[in-house]
Here is the input.
Amino acid sequence: MKQVRSIRSQLFLCYASIILFTVVGIALAFYFYTADILERRAAESLQAISSSISLSLDSEIKRMDEESRRIISSEGVKEAFFQSDPSDFNKPQFRTDLFHLLFSSYPTMNYQVNLFGTENTLIQYGRIFDITTQDYREIYPEDWFEDCLSLEGQKQVTGIHRNHAGYQVISLSRAFSESFF
Here is the structure.
């Protein structure tokens, strides 16, 4: 009787191992097949997100470029910036007129525009509006400054960097001169 059990045990172990190896083989094949599909979908999704971000960034830079070009080619801004006496920048009426000029032309400014003058004037318009004095030589050591001047009015995009407030920003710079536009 012991031999019969032994044969049954052997048969059971043989069939159980065949079934076990078959199930493990099917499970592994299914795992690798599913992992490959999921990896491809993740790569496609990442590519779509990357493309979307790239298009959005390109669109934002294009809007920044258009707004900056409109502002610095505006006759009112040129007149206020180049034909005004630097002492006018401290007069409340001049500031009010300039603010109205900028706000009426560009009421939905989503960016910060800083116009630096060689007469130590600084006009800030956008998220912050202020007309102050700042020595342009303070920004001269900045990496982008000389490159911007050499482009003579053409845009220069500076990649992601931290601004003076510590926020990560992308900057579009353009030299602003009566002769460039």
